[in-house]
Amino acid sequence: MAEVTFKQLFFRYYDRTVGYGLLSFTQLGVSKNDFTRLCTEDGFVMDDETITRACNNMKLTEEETAEILAVASKERNKN
Questions:
Q1: Using one digit for the tens of pLDDT, what is the confidence trace for 24-53?
Q2: For the chain, what is the HEC assignment?
Q3: How many angstroms separate the CA atoms of 29 and 3, rounded?
Q4: For residue 18, what is the DSSP state?
């Protein structure tokens, strides 16, 4: 089974949060450029500060935030 990518994990949480009506894109705290790159570039990973801000704005748990940061770090180290 393939490991989950940063992009997959980020959008899993983002889609859930937006789907519940808890957040809109403008409230996410991610630049349009970074969001576009995440959508279009395989392997793109935002910096930890941006990820943490987005996680806080999405009201993710500490465990979810730690998970997404760990996947981001692992993916950065892979490239």
A1: 888 999 999 999 999 999 899 999 999 999
A2: CCCCCHHHHHHHHHHHHHHCCCCCHHHHCCCHHHHHHHHHCCCCCCCHHHHHHHHHHCCCCHHHHHHHHHHHHHHHHHC
A3: 26
A4: H
